[in-house]
Amino acid sequence: MPPLSGLGLFAVAAFLLLITPGPAVLYIVTRSMDQGRRAGLVSMLGVHTGTLVHIAAAAAGLSAVLMASATAFSVVKYLGAAYLVYLGVRRLLDRSVATAAVPTRVRLRRAFVDGFVVNLLNPKTALFFLAFLPQFVDVTRGRVGRQILILGLMFVGLGLVTDGLYALGAGSAARWLRASPRFLASERWVSGGMYIGLGVAATFAGNHRK
């Protein structure tokens, strides 16, 4: 176990980071507004399943490969950006129209897989855990990998709460907005544009060597 004295500080730091909207939060909010709270929550579970992979990699030291190799970092980053753009284009081409009572239908398995892939192909998530989690590890206690794993699981637990609230809030707001014909007419373009915007932002974001 990490030292108990540091767990409280870690929880506060993790909570502050989680409530600050980032790419994962924007993705979950977009999915929830586009396809309803249920799809948003399932997407959130996919995102954090991807997070578990990054945490396991950080605990095993594999994330250091991304930090050491500019090529590996770039390949993963561009794959992730391309997938976000693909989701946006797919949404723009989807001409189905949501109603006030029934949002655009989506297979929940697809929502989960999309969330998982989006976060798995985000190398900055891997580098974040490699840089953030060790700050709260006590090397004198040994089993550093296990300490990192415990802290990572705490982070995911807090993330399920905060991101779940984002998904529920966005889904509720979208349900209210669907009563507006203007929103229904523009919703496909807004959600598709947000996916593409996230992909473009990921493409031009500075790399880890800066």
How do the strands and helices of this protein lay out in sequence?
Layout: H1 4-19, H2 23-35, H3 37-60, H4 63-68, H5 70-93, H6 108-120, H7 123-132, H8 144-177, H9 181-204
Radius of gyration: 18 Å
Number of helices: 9
Which geometry do the CA atoms define? globular
Extract low-pLDDT stretches: 97-104
Instruction: State the order of secondary-structure elements, H for helix, E for strand.
Output: HHHHHHHHH
Category from helices, strands and their pairing: mainly alpha
Q: How many individual domains?
A: 1
What's the story with the biggest beta sheet? none
Strand content: under 5%
Distance between the termini: 33 Å
Can you give the helix content as a percent range? over 70%
Number of strands: 0
The average pLDDT is 76
Task: Write structural notes for this entry.
The protein is mainly alpha-helical and 210 residues long. It has one domain. The chain has nine helices and no strands. It has helices at 4-19, 23-35, 37-60, 63-68, 70-93, 108-120, 123-132, 144-177, 181-204. Helix 1 (4-19) runs parallel beside helix 8. The model is unreliable at 97-104 (pLDDT under 50).
